[in-house]
Design a protein that fits this description.
Elements (H helix, E strand, L loop, with lengths): L1 H6 L2 E2 L6 E2 L2 H6 L29 E4 L2 E6 L2 E3 L6 E4 L2 E6 L2 E3 L10 E4 L2 E6 L2 E3 L5 E4 L3 H7 L3 E7 L2 E2 L4 E5 L7 E12 L3 E6 L7 E23 L31 E22 L6 E13 L1 E6 L1 E13 L6 E4 L2 E10 L6 E4 L5 E4 L11 E3 L7 E3 L1
C-alpha cells in the first residue's frame, strides 16, 4: 500500500483500498455506474470517467466466431466478452493480465450458446473462464441463458477462479461440459457464486478430470452470499460472516442445482469443498465422485440438499471436524477415506440429515458432534 500511495492517487476512507485518481474512487460509490440511460449525456459520466474501464474485445450478437492462436494482453477490464453470440470457438488462445488487474477477467461468455473453449491458457487478474448471463432485473428481463458449451484442455495460472459461473447469472446457465482442465495457483478452482437479487437458474453442469495445485482458497466452492470481494482475504483480514435468515422466495432468488463433478485432484488448498446455500433456496442435487484433496480443511456443507460425495480421499492438517454440516438434508457420504481426524463430522441444525456408508468413522479420535438442534438421529451409518 505504501508503494502505491507513493506513486500517486489516494486511498479509501478506511485506508484499505488504493485508487489511482479521485474519479476512480468516486465511481465506486455510484450505483450502476456503467449503465447508460436516456436522461444522461457524456458529460454526466465525466466525473467518474476513470472508473469506467472498457472491456478489450466485445462481440455482440455475432454468429460463427473463431478466435484461434491469438494472444490478448493487458485489458482495462474484461479481456474477451462475447455477448448474445452463437457458435463461438476459442482455440489455442492466450490471455494474460497482471495479477492486480481488477476485473481483469480472461473470457466472460454472457448469454451465449453453442461453443467451445479449448486448449487455451489464462493468467489473469480476476476470473479466468467465466459464465455469465446478465445481472439482476436486467438479466432476468433479457432471459437468455449461457448454454451448450464444451470447455476442455485449458490451463489456468493466476486467477480468482479457474472455471467460474456467476455472479451475474440472472438469465441462467445450463448444459455446460467442462473437462481436462488444470488450475495452478488460482485463488479458487471451481467457483460458483451468486447472491440474493440475482434470480436465475444454473443447472445441468457436468465437470470431470480436473487437476489443481497450490489453491489459496477453496478447491470447489458454491456460495450464494457473494459480496464482490477478493475470494482470499489479505494478510491480517478475516472473511466476513453472513447473517443467516430466511426470506420469501421470489423471481430474484437464485438457484444452483444438478451439478455432476468427478475425477478431481487438488494438491494444496485452504479448504477442499465449500457449499453455502440460502435457507429458502438450498444448493441442491450436487454429485461429487472420485475426489482426491490435500488441503488444510476438508468440507463444509451449509444450507444444502441432496449432496452426494462418493469415493473421496481427504488429506488435511485441520480435521476438527473433517466435514462440517449445517441445516443440510439428504447428505450422502460414501467411501470417504482419510488418515487421521480429530472429529470426522460436526452436524448442526434441526434440518440436517446425513448418511455415511462404506467409511470407518471410528478412526476419528472424537465422536461426532451434534449442536444447534441436531441430535444423534441426524446421522446414519451403514
Amino acid at each position: 500500500m505504501e508503494k502505491l500511495v507513493a506513486s500517486g492517487g489516494l486511498v479509501s476512507d478506511d485506508n484499505r483500498t488504493w485508487y489511482p485518481s479521485e474519479k476512480s474512487k468516486k465511481g465506486t460509490g455510484v450505483k450502476n455506474a456503467g449503465v447508460i440511460s436516456p436522461d444522461k449525456t457524456a458529460k454526466d459520466y465525466e466525473e467518474i470517467k476513470d472508473f469506467l474501464r472498457p472491456n478489450m474485445v466485445v462481440l455482440t450478437r455475432c454468429k460463427k466466431v473463431l478466435l484461434q492462436g491469438v494472444t490478448f494482453q493487458n485489458s482495462p477490464a474484461w479481456c474477451l466478452h462475447p455477448l448474445l453470440c452463437e457458435h463461438i470457438t476459442l482455440r489455442d488462445v492466450y490471455v494474460k493480465n497482471p495479477w492486480y488487474a481488477q476485473n481483469g477477467d480472461g473470457v466472460d461468455l454472457e448469454s451465449c450458446r453453442f461453443g467451445r473453449v479449448e486448449n487455451c491458457v489464462f493468467d489473469v487478474g480476476d476470473d479466468a473462464i467465466c459464465i455469465k448471463s446478465g445481472r439482476d432485473e436486467q438479466g432476468r428481463k433479457r432471459g437468455v441463458p449461457t448454454e451448450n458449451f464444451i470447455i476442455k484442455n485449458n490451463l489456468v495460472y493466476h486467477a480468482h477462479g479457474g472455471f467460474v459461473i456467476g455472479s451475474e447469472m440472472s438469465g441462467g446457465a445450463r448444459n455446460l461440459f467442462v473437462s481436462n482442465c488444470t488450475f495452478m495457483g488460482t485463488d479458487i478452482g471451481l467457483r460458483f457464486k451468486t447472491t440474493r437479487g440475482r434470480g436465475g437458474v444454473v443447472e445441468k453442469i457436468f465437470i470431470k478430470d480436473i487437476n489443481m495445485t497450490n489453491i489459496p482458497g477453496e478447491a470447489i466452492l458454491f456460495d450464494m452470499y457473494y459480496m464482490a470481494k477478493d475470494p482470499v482475504p489479505l494478510a491480517g483480514e478475516k472473511a466476513a460472516d453472513v447473517k443467516v435468515e430466511t426470506i420469501p422466495v421470489t423471481e430474484a432468488t437464485p438457484q444452483f442445482r444438478d451439478f455432476q463433478i468427478s475425477n478431481v485432484v487438488c494438491h494444496g488448498a485452504q479448504k477442499g469443498i465449500f457449499i453455502r446455500g440460502l435457507p429458502e433456496m438450498p444448493i441442491s442435487n450436487i454429485t461429487m465422485d472420485n475426489i482426491v484433496i490435500k488441503a488444510k480443511k476438508g468440507a463444509e456443507l451449509l444450507e444444502a440438499s441432496n449432496i452426494r460425495i462418493t469415493n473421496a480421499t481427504f488429506e488435511v492438517t485441520d480435521s476438527d471436524p473433517l466435514i462440517n454440516v449445517r441445516n443440510s438434508r439428504e447428505i450422502q457420504l460414501s467411501n470417504i477415506k482419510f488418515d487421521e481426524a480429530k472429529n470426522f463430522i460436526n452436524i448442526k441444525g434441526e434440518k440436517s440429515g446425513v448418511v455415511v456408508s462404506g467409511t470407518d468413522i471410528k478412526k476419528a479420535k472424537d465422536k461426532p458432534v451434534f449442536a444447534d438442534g441436531a441430535t444423534a438421529g441426524a446421522l446414519t451409518t451403514k
